[in-house]
């Protein structure tokens, strides 16, 4: 039985993926504005989801595949620069260097590109509101926000903070967890500022149109933009965007690093035979906890969360504060690290701060995040997800999280970043996973 994701070329712009024996995807690439090889952006895997059977597993987000923490920040920068060029005619003067650093595998080139990117500020015709989609694109959205002058940032969330009503609610229809909400001060949305929606991938665009309809009903405006790494909308899906533009009297521009159409053939997986539990039960990992709350801002009405995530809104004035806080926190953790090869692990939608902190933690540091999405692992060449583990989220035991592509003896220390305080008992399932992967040191990093 064929279980690897093999790639064949029939023409330059066509690609065929045999994901599983009963699952195939054909791509037709229409637009590649920065000439980025598709294999640099993603690999393929099978979702455990009867609504959508396949998954474009990003190689640049730091979600399912570990990356140098600079890589997602460079991806965000390219999206912001490309959007500014397309909609406002602003040419990013560091674009070629950022592209080179993004495509590079050596740390020196990535650092050079990011040093220039951090100094880049793009002034659009109106200061936008940037909204990143949970859970996968919360860091991607905040990275876009970093470059835009006068911007405000919010990310959607699956959290339900006590005593707060969401200002926006909508559904991500294909997702494993469909309910999405936004919490911020209403005055942020009452002004007619352009809204930039940031996601890692658009396949049908239904989620985007769902949130646009909700915004337009409550806080009408004229201009929306959708930024994504990948855009696989069909002609019919693009026509749906045009219909919504006409219906609501708005413009919806789109920017992506790679665009085309996708055809799926086969059967979806509504369950998997893969066993996500660790084999070993003996605990061999040493554990410690480090508190970073002194570097970050507790919210007066939601003390379990910190302001700097953007979940409740941040603006232009917060950028410098966040940069310094992550710098100080990263250098502090670097002084305490015991391992030579480190994995920094964000949790769920809590991605940007752990990723940013990881950039200041020295050499041989990799970053990725846990996820709620069940994916079917297969240990085969070119298949995107080699192995996987599941465990109850230490912050909320009712929510199952997954972590993928953990190599055996690949790291000697893991830093697990959790926004909320956790109790020792809740960490036991995760510690078993670390022991199973021969990780000697586990450091739990808390923020509030």
UniProtKB/TrEMBL annotation:
Q: Which residues form the TRSP domain?
A: 308-432
Superkingdom of origin: Bacteria
Q: Which UniProt keywords apply?
A: Glycosyltransferase, Transferase
Q: Which Pfam families match?
A: PRTase_2, TRSP
Q: Does the keyword Nucleus apply?
A: no
Q: Which molecular function term from Gene Ontology is one that the record holds? A: glycosyltransferase activity
Domain Orotate phosphoribosyltransferase-like, by residue range, is 41-260
Annotated SUPFAM superfamilies: PRTase-like (SSF53271)
Plastid keyword on record: no
Q: What name goes with this protein?
A: Phosphoribosyltransferase family protein
